[in-house]
Design goal:
The chain is built from 20 helices and 20 strands. The chain has helices at about 25-35, 50, 65-80, 90-110, 135, 150-165, 205-215, 225-230, 235-245, 275-280, 315-320, 330-340, 360-375, 385-390, 410-420, 430-435, 440-445, 460-465, 480-485, 495-505, and strands at about 20-25, 40, 60-65, 85-90, 110-120, 145, 170-180, 185-190, 220-225, 245-250, 265-270, 285-290, 310-315, 325-330, 375-380, 400, 425-430, 450-455, 490-495, 510-515. Helix content is about 35%, strand content about 20%. With about 525 residues, it is of the alpha/beta class. It is globular.
């Protein structure tokens, strides 16, 4: 079972290297084409123009009005296509504008190649305007960063960046491309090296898991984002049904991994306190975490190593951080092989969890949305109301995406990027989130995507109000629907829930509806 390999056309693979001379930028685009990548995301500047003027006619440059939004759009497009994406950023200002969005890609394990326009290669020692040490600037938010020093290195480093981005754990890799190097000529090899990543789970690790399952008196599964990344939804459901064990979402769910209407589904674990997770899971002898992070909470107030946990992940960095037993391999392969070998069925009877309803008005709004939600992929960035949304909307596999890093502004940007694939997107976001990236609406209009936006106006940072802090700087008042009009969206404020939700979701027009909460 392989994850990625080069999509080089078979007709171009020969026993010898055939090449012609082309500019570095042209060679980059030729490599991208051979990999099935026909688009690039960005917001252009002077140091990128020598590269960008070489864009072939069969490519699309997706323009964002803010550098960070271009990264968010690329991440959304990846989530829709599962193909690594390329972003072009404008030197130091563009890179620093984008750091938080790159961090989201790093945490969410999204493979990106980030090309940053650099000043002339022979002038870097003078540190002219727009120059920057991109290696230092990006440290901690990319897998690796490389300064291209000459045309001979350029192609080698582009190939290296691609390979590294798709070698687990996936993530962004940065290339600093001097504007003069982009125009220099190189040998353009037509044969692109393939890259295979082994992912099979070995028998010894599977036997260990099977033995632990057979010893346990009770068991639960915690499903994480890797179920979505590796498209293991059906396999997970059949595995849970065969064992007859409950399934939880990981605490800080970023990709919905399970059908919320399934009788074994127990909802999401608390994203606030580790003690809440301990209270919920300590009743089980064994916790099998598949492709997720159970410790990923806002307040790690207790040590979860008290639980008997086995974690299966393809992220070796995540595995090495944990004190419990870990197995590093493709979670889909693990589920398939465990299902074939397992001969155990637990006694489990679902008990309904009693959840309090925080906002009855918003609860009714989400119920109005539910019949329409089947037709949309939802990007949610309303932290205060996240749990209420999850309780009220039927979540099918990969039907809901949420920022994994906690970044504000990602939901709208990534939602627009996802909609570029042709899918219908509903973004449900708070007013605080909207104010981080309203420019993303322009890109939706420019590229004619089906984008719906529901803004829940909390009249301030309501997620912080719960900490009993009374301060006027927690109450910025804005009117998002008026802002949306300026970017070309149909927009209005909600008056009648049933009628206005139908107005928002009942057609294929770009619309924004604002709900003001008291």
């Amino acid at each position: 079972m392989k994850l990625y390999e080069s999509l080089t056309p078979q007709s171009s693979i020969t026993s010898s290297n055939i090449f012609s001379f082309v500019k570095v930028g042209e060679s980059f685009f030729n490599i991208m084409r051979s990999l099935g990548i026909r688009q690039i995301f960005g917001n252009p500047g002077t140091t990128e123009l020598t590269f960008l003027k070489q864009i072939p006619k069969d490519f699309t440059y997706y323009l964002a009005l803010h550098d960070g939004i271009s990264v968010g759009m690329a991440e959304g497009f990846y989530l829709a296509t599962r193909t690594p994406q390329v972003v072009n950023l404008h030197s130091s200002p563009g890179l620093t504008n984008s750091i938080s969005f790159i961090y989201e890609a790093y945490v969410s394990r999204i493979p990106l190649i980030i090309i940053v326009g650099q000043q002339y290669s022979n002038k870097l020692v003078d540190e002219p305007i727009l120059y920057g040490d991109f290696i230092k600037i990006s440290s901690g938010v990319v897998k690796s960063a490389y300064e291209i020093r000459n045309e001979e290195e350029a192609i080698k480093l582009f190939i290296r960046a691609y390979k590294e981005s798709i070698t687990p754990p996936y993530g962004p890799v940065l290339l600093s491309l001097p504007l003069d190097v982009a125009e220099k000529e190189v040998k353009d090899y037509l044969q692109f090296p393939r890259h295979f990543v082994g992912s099979l789970c070995d028998d010894m690790s599977l036997e260990f898991i099977l033995n632990e399952i057979n010893k346990a008196k009770s068991m639960a599964i915690v499903a994480g984002y890797e179920i979505g990344i590796f498209n293991a939804y059906e396999e997970l459901m059949k595995f849970a049904e065969k064992l007859n064990v409950p399934v939880y979402n990981e605490p800080y769910m970023s990709i919905s991994p399970y059908d919320s209407s399934h009788p074994l589904f127990m909802g999401s674990l608390s994203r606030y306190r580790a003690s809440d997770i301990l209270k919920e899971l300590e009743k089980y002898d064994l916790i099998l975490v598949i492709g997720g992070w159970i410790n990923y909470v806002v307040f790690p107030d207790v040590d979860l190593s008290k639980l008997n946990v086995i974690e299966i992940t393809f992220d070796y960095k995540e595995a090495t951080r944990r004190p419990w037993s870990t197995v590093v391999c493709n979670p889909k392969d693990a589920i398939i092989k465990l299902s074939e070998k397992i001969n155990r069925r637990f006694e489990f009877k679902r008990e309904e969890r009693l959840d309090s309803v925080e906002n009855t008005f918003l609860n009714d709004i989400f119920k109005e949305i539910k019949p329409y939600a089947e037709n949309y992929v939802i990007f949610s960035e309303a932290p205060t109301h996240r749990d209420l949304l999850i309780k009220n909307i039927r979540l099918k596999p990969s039907s809901l995406y949420i920022t994994r890093s906690g970044l504000l502004g990602w939901g709208l940007s990534a939602g627009v990027g996802y909609s570029l694939s042709g899918r219908k997107v509903l973004a449900i976001i708070g007013d605080g989130s909207f104010n981080y990236s309203p420019q993303a609406l322009w890109s939706s209009v420019r590229y004619n995507t089906v984008m719906k936006v529901l803004v829940i106006n909390n009249r301030g940072y309501k997620s912080l109000a719960r900490y009993n802090l009374n301060a006027d700087w927690l109450l910025p008042l804005t009117t998002p629907w008026k802002v949306a009009l300026g970017y070309g969206f149909e927009a209005k404020e909600l008056e009648d829930p049933k009628r206005d939700i139908s107005w928002l979701l009942g057609d294929n027009k770009r619309k924004l509806l604002e709900i003001i909460l008291d």
